[in-house]
Amino acid sequence: ETGVTQTPRHLVMGMTNKKSLKCEQHLGHNAMYWYKQSAKKPLELMFVYNFKEQTENNSVPSRFSPECPNSSHLFLHLHTLQPEDSALYLCASSQGNGDLDEQYFGPGTRLTVT
Amino acid sequence: DAKTTQPPSMDCAEGRAANLPCNHSTISGNEYVYWYRQIHSQGPQYIIHGLKNNETNEMASLIITEDRKSSTLILPHATLRDTAVYYCIVNRGGSNYKLTFGKGTLLTVNP
After folding, report:
1. Which residue of A8, A111, B10, B53 is surrounded by the most CB atoms within 10 Å?
2. How far is CA B4 from CA A8, B22, B34, B71, B89, in A?
3. Which of these, B65, B62, B64, lies nearest to B36 by C-alpha position?
4. pLDDT tens per residue across span B70-97
């Protein structure tokens, strides 16, 4: 138990569906992250939020839309996804003060786009 | 951030020390060495980090060479639950937002 929870753990959606992934951290952290891990590929950073402000968008397609209503919650809204978007989506959090800022990861959401 | 090189896989006998190497020959003076691991179907887990001195915590030890061009993560008494992919990451303190994960080393601990 890392203090970072993600729901749902598994999601199957069609290409025309709209769904949302949820992440919640109970660590009092100020920074939250979305990563994507495709099969046999390294983790890719998608978005970074620090004190609810987006500070990094790693050239992510607009069909992925993040939302950070407060420092404890992070959402990833999904619409009109493609089969190649099937992956493990990981959320992480950290103190957000920069120096020596280790990240704590949630268990991930396994997404399958059909 | 400096690039790292790790062997793709290693084996270790249960109860023995696991020594995982990492080369980071282009590391700059203000970059730290971080280690994370990812057990199958779980999110990555922070293990340890260091700048130039050797570091030890309850999980592992980190040995950094004097020239800082390489390091070794040591799990002193590996267990079956230590089977995971281990990632060596070099990152500037103050910009840890951009952890760049490579392919890591798959460590398999055998009974």
Report:
1. A111
2. 34, 7, 11, 10, 7
3. B62
4. 999 999 999 999 999 999 999 876 554 6
Encode pLDDT of A4-58 as tens digits. Answer: 999 999 999 999 889 999 999 999 999 999 999 998 788 999 999 988 888 888 8
Q: What is the pLDDT of residues A47-93, one digit of tens each?
A: 999 888 888 888 899 999 999 999 999 999 999 999 999 999 999 99
The CA distance from B47 to B60, in Å, is: 7
Q: Tell whether A39 lies on the interface with B, counting CB pairs under 8 A.
A: no
Task: Characterize A72-108 residue by residue with b for buried, 16 or more Cβ atoms within 10 angstroms of its Cβ, and e for exposed.
Answer: bebbbebeebeeebbbbbbbbbbbbeeeebbbbbbbb
Best B3, B95, B96 residue to mutate vs chain A (most A CBs within 10 Å): B96
- The dihedral region occupied by B94, where left means phi > 0, alpha psi between -120 and 50, and beta the remainder, is left
Look-up of token digits 């937002």: B97
Residue indicated by tokens 């103050």 = B94
The minimal CB distance from B97 to the residues A56, A91, A104 is found for A56
Cross-chain residue pair A45–B43, CB shorter than 8 Å: no
